[in-house]
Amino acid sequence: MNRPAVLIVLAGVVFGALVGFAVPTFSGPAYRSGATIVFTAVQVQARPATASVARHISQRMPSWAKVAASGAVAGEAGLRGGESITAHEISGVQSLRIELDSPDRDGLAERATAAANTVIAVITRMEFNRVSGVVFETGSEPESTSGAWAVWGAVLGAVLGAVLGWLGVSLRRPGRWVSQVAEGGSRIVGAEAFATDVDQEMRSLWAAVRTRRGLLVVGLGFFAIAGYAATGSVGPPFVVLVVAGLAAVRDPRWIAGAVLVLGISVLPPKLELVQIGPVTPTVLEVAVLIGLVVLWKRPGKSIFTVPLVLLMAAVAIGGMLGVTGGGEFSEVADAMRALLLVPLAFLIVYRAFAGRLAQLVAIVAVGAAVASAVELLAAVMDWQRLLVDQRSSVITGDDTAEVARLSAPVLPLWGPLLILLASGAFPARPRWRLLLIALPGLAHEALSFNRSTWAPLLACVVLVAVARFGSRGVVKRLLAAAVLGLLTLGLASGGALGQTGEALAGRVTSVFSGEALVEDSLADRVRENTAALNTLLEHPVLGTGVGVPYGGEIISYDAVHDRTVVEPRPWIHNQYLRIWLWFGAFGLLAVGLLMVRVASAVVHGWRRRAPGTVLVVALGLGLACMATQSIFQTTLIDRPSLVVVALTLAMLGLAADWRPQVRQGGTTPLSAKRIMTR
């Protein structure tokens, strides 16, 4: 980076920090008042108090601190807008410090005292009146917390300023990486040529299946999946991995394919092997290790190399902070191993399929369709071992439908893949083949009942359709799709498609009726975000580290010991808050720079008229779709989602440098109306 670029980025950091520092003051002041509660045991039976009774309170205090900050107390206390309760245990004195945050100073001390009394009432009720509590110290004089929010805003503003400054520099004066983006081609001819290449690869796949080697590959895949489904043993997938590893010595595509099958198919991604010390490696991780050994010396520097190196550094720093900050080593190690799948799986797929992008797209499309078809069949046949993360009910509003809610590792792949199928860089004819690939994915997406993934995916598909067909063509297709959708929705609501169709119709209509906005799941995620923000107020720069609880809670009832149990919530749905918590501001910056490189690759691919422009735009939208879904889903700890990110980045890196092969006789471009070039 040259000196002007550095100055621009630094200016962005300073300006962003100043704006971030000032913004919290625009939203008004923030205040905090605290009250102290002291608990005592109530002797239920007429006998002298014992040590076990007194010990009950000290054992329960951590859980009660979580209860005090839970939605149960917030709802009963009648908190005002912008108010939240936090609680801290005072060690050794059987006390809780209750703190009420509010934008309103007037009467805050009295409301803090009332909140403390509400905490006592809720905990006493949960403990079946076996304990009692008293407000030992009433609400304190309100103190301003605007300074803490200003620091928090300054850190976030500095990160956003750096990212925006880097984006401006990257778009205006990119570095040497831009030389890897192809130029001087025709978008129309390039899209047609790539679709032709994919068509040829798919025909070659079908022809190869009927050969002896093709039958061997299909047989190995069937052995891995059917063997695991029948026995539940890690043996069949591991045997197939060994075969792929041996074959990868001559052709590394074997081990890249094994990584994809083990990461994003119907097999559980955490098929664990023998424990080695505190860590138990998985079959997927062994496949990644073999891939690194085979491909380490193979050339292939990508446009995403620098951002991914920064991401690995952020993961390492977050892991060290997690270990030193009190996180359990097993949880820290598991999270870091999952996150490292992004750069490592990217390296394997990118280098193994260098120069064979069309073949990779064909394999991924056919493989995803087969995997989703197997998952749908497993749901019908009740093959439980292949129904990874399946749930047996769907809660929509106040209704609970006892229907299967499918997940499976292949599901995250369908977001980028459906966008790619609609882009024009994939052969649209014969239509039956395109439908044969897309329909299993559409059915799988529908039966996942994930509203938070439907909306970003639909928006990206519509955007691709506008670019491909123009506004008039999109209107016609949207009207046809709307009529078909309303007809299907009406039949499903009336019960013509069974209980699953009725539950799916209710799920869809809840988005438009506003019912989704009043569900417990939304309020639960708001409480997650509030707990995370309260923690980040104390650690805005470094975060907490990987595996350290952030303040979210899980409340359950222990029937054996007849008590309510509150445990730290290990997940949070907003992954950007998780990144900030785990990796600090540097982690946010690393992820932001990766996004900047993706956006820059799309823009410069379009400017330079790269032959693979259509593919680059589609894959960039696929990553944008996943980035949007990460606001609502736990993708950062989901291994299949991380492998999909690695795969999509690898395909985007290959697409940026893709050039059509020269064929004798030339090619006939398709009509511009059928290509995403407008």
Automatic annotation (TrEMBL):
The keyword Hydrolase does not apply. Residues 447-590 form the O-antigen ligase-related domain. One of its GO terms (molecular function) is ligase activity. Signal peptide: none annotated. InterPro entries: O-antigen_ligase-rel_domated (IPR007016), WaaL-like (IPR051533). It comes from the Bacteria. Coiled coil: none annotated. The chain crosses the membrane at residues 149-169, 215-248, 278-296, 302-323, 335-354, 360-383, 403-426, 454-471, 478-497, 579-600, 612-631, 637-656. It holds the Pfam family Wzy_C. It is found in: Membrane. It is a multi-pass membrane protein. The keyword Transcription does not apply. Keywords: Ligase, Membrane, Transmembrane, Transmembrane helix. This is O-antigen ligase. It comes from Kibdelosporangium persicum.
